[in-house]
Amino acid sequence: MISNEKVLILFGTQTGNSEDVADRILRYLKRMHIKAQVVDINEYTVTNLVNESLVIFVCSTTGNGEFPDNMKSFWKFLLRKNLPSNSLCQLNFCVFGLGDSSYEKFNVVSKKLNKRLIQLGATEIIPLTLGDDQHELGYDAALDPWLLNLKNTILSFFTVSDPPIPEDVPLPPRYKVKFCNELLTTDEFQSTTYNRNKSFPLATLKKNERVTAVDHFQAVHHLEFEIDSTVHYDPGDVAVVWPENPPEEVEDFLSLLNVPLDTNFILIPSDVNTPLPKINPYPCTVRQCAVSYFDILSVPRRSFFEVFHHFSQDELEKEKLVEFTTAAGQEELYDYCNRPRRTILEVLKDFPHTTPHVPFDYLFDMIPSIRPRSFSIASALKTHPQEFHLLVAVVQYKTRLMKSRQGLCSNWLAKLKLGTIIPYYIKRGSIVLPETNVPIIMVGPGTGCAPFRAFTEERASAGVGDNYLFFGCRYKTKDFLFSEVWLELCEKKMLTIFTAFSRDQDEKIYVQHRIAENGPLIWDLIQNKKGVIYIAGNAKQMPEGVKDAFMEIIKKQGNLNEDESVKYLQTLEHMKRYQIETWA
């Protein structure tokens, strides 16, 4: 038995997947009559960990093996060298990790956390389990058996006399909705207000220009925002913004609801430990909630159907919805949702006999919130005072079933009107300029060049010209991003650029080919002049191809064998002389 009567579930997430898994675990435990609480790890006071008896950690690995933003402070504390090796000896724990095995540092965050907790004396009650997004069933393939293991393990810590709540009985909603035309107490209304425009700095859009040719398949926009003179950022930093749903889809969604659309409401948590969501503004109307909170254009996860099916009164629809909640039905769910990237809005419309019966309260259990999006800042404050610039590739694609899809945030940004004011915040990026004036080698194909505009502008303003950029795109005349900036810097002897236009000739040429062609120069820069390498761009193939090119240079120019070359590159990484910022 444990001293605390509840299980604490802490999640570290970048995209919301870990939070979704944490909520599923919570519902799973509630059905077993076990008290549990889900907490964003960033909102948790880490020093309280010494008082916890049983904690479940759910965490994702993001970028190039990095911790999610909301987990970095927590992890920094755990790494303190003055923590005794028995400081967590009273803690029982388990870790479920979410990652993607196509990345080199698969689930490295979960592995590090698990190892560190054991080092601090905590007891692992279930072996570390790693969900893999590459599996045909996604992380559910690992989560389903892990939940069964959790059930059997956790019952040894609690005395439970009541039988489990059956799967066909809905759990109470996380929040009870109270419309403001009902009688509200002063405390209910005043203690729950929130306005993002008052909580974060504001930026005014002063330029929004497409910078790729009109006949080019990929639209890329250069946006310039005016900001307050008190705001500071450094090259490599990131701007974070909150997108909104498109008006047409919002109206579609609202047409499915049977509640007052323009009356303010508040939420009453069903559990005193459940925090209120960050709806903007709050209190708000259902219409405002549909615009800025509900992520109706995301692909529904399995947890969506675990709530949705309870309200179906149509036999055929209910049968299909229940199937989507079972382990056996996951392949069917993948074919229905993931393969065509079907949205929550489309699913709600696909089940017309079920959707009208879903109480509005339960939508907060079913539909995730719109998450903020991060963009590398493409400007230096010294060159563009009171501004930050973004370089945004507008996401438009066809699914495997040839369904057209659009990225929520990039399309929202591309359509923003001049003069629009938006809330934002600045966070530290994963690539940082060196403190000294050593040479920098930048590899930034496509919009990966965005942070390097900031880098080169910053160094050029200080008269530092040892800057080398490897830029790649398809066509010199169609998508040579920031070409005028680069060429002007080259004329001023502040930049040396190597370009790879992959489709301007029969044989495709990429940045890794240009890197390979300049082996002696690169070796001189990193070996003799202690230069720093930066790589930014798409996370799937580019970083590995570039890494291979650098490895070949290290082997050939340094006359090293395979093992020695690997160690050399690892040393560069450890010394922050090989930095990567990638995105999916």
From TrEMBL:
GO BP annotations listed: iron-sulfur cluster assembly
The entry's keywords: Cytoplasm, FAD, Flavoprotein, FMN, NADP, Oxidoreductase
Cofactor(s) required, per the database record: FAD; FMN
UniProt: NADP(+) binding residues: T447, S502, R503, K508, I509, Y510, V511, Q512
NADP among keywords: yes
Recorded catalytic activity of this chain's protein: 2 oxidized [2Fe-2S]-[protein] + NADPH = 2 reduced [2Fe-2S]-[protein] + NADP(+) + H(+)
Alphabetized GO MF terms: flavin adenine dinucleotide binding; FMN binding; NADP binding; NADPH-iron-sulfur [2Fe-2S] protein oxidoreductase activity; oxidoreductase activity, acting on NAD(P)H
Pfam families tied to this protein: FAD_binding_1, Flavodoxin_1, NAD_binding_1
Location within or outside the cell: Cytoplasm
Annotated binding of FMN, by residue: 13-18, 60-63, 98-107, 133
Annotated Flavodoxin-like domain residues: 7-151
FAD-binding FR-type domain boundaries: 198-434
Enzyme class per UniProt: oxidoreductase
Residues binding FAD: R341, R373, S374, F375, S376, G407, L408, C409, S410, W583
GO CC list: cytosol; nucleus
Entry EC no(s): 1.18.1.-
Protein's job: NADPH-dependent reductase which is a central component of the cytosolic iron-sulfur (Fe-S) protein assembly (CIA) machinery. Transfers electrons from NADPH via its FAD and FMN prosthetic groups to the [2Fe-2S] cluster of CIAPIN1, another key component of the CIA machinery. In turn, this reduced cluster provides electrons for assembly of cytosolic iron-sulfur cluster proteins. It can also reduce the [2Fe-2S] cluster of CISD1 and activate this protein implicated in Fe/S cluster repair. In vitro can fully activate methionine synthase/MTR in the presence of soluble cytochrome b5/CYB5A.
Family according to the record: In the C-terminal section; belongs to the flavoprotein pyridine nucleotide cytochrome reductase family. In the N-terminal section; belongs to the flavodoxin family.
Subunit: Interacts with CIAPIN1; as part of the cytosolic iron-sulfur (Fe-S) protein assembly (CIA) machinery. Interacts with DCPS.
Full protein name: NADPH-dependent diflavin oxidoreductase 1
Protein species of origin: Argiope bruennichi
